[in-house]
Amino acid sequence: MQTKSKAFWKYINSKRKTKTGNGDLNSVDICANSVMVSSNVEKAEVLGKFFSSVFTVEEEQSSSSLPVKPCHSPIRQLVFNEQIILDKLNKLNISKSPGPDGIHP
Predict the structure, then answer these.
(1) What pTM, to 2 d.p., does this model score?
(2) Quick one: 46 exposed, middle or buried, by C-beta within 10 A (0-12, 13-18, 19+)?
């Protein structure tokens, strides 16, 4: 029965007019925003960029020579003060097990 099923689906798939392709891809634009890529040309560019970054050896560059891309960062300035930190420390449950760093609360 298994071989008849395989032969049947092989025949059906050979007669289909459309082939299943790659689905939409998630990519990141120059401002680190997540974007959905759906056209074949864009998919090819995203996959080509990914594979070239993985399979090429790049020369080391100093951080001062990197281009600066103007983007609006969604991270706002963080404010720390002694009272906030003490409140967080007082709320820690000392009977809990240590985290992945091996340090107990």
Answers:
(1) 0.35
(2) middle
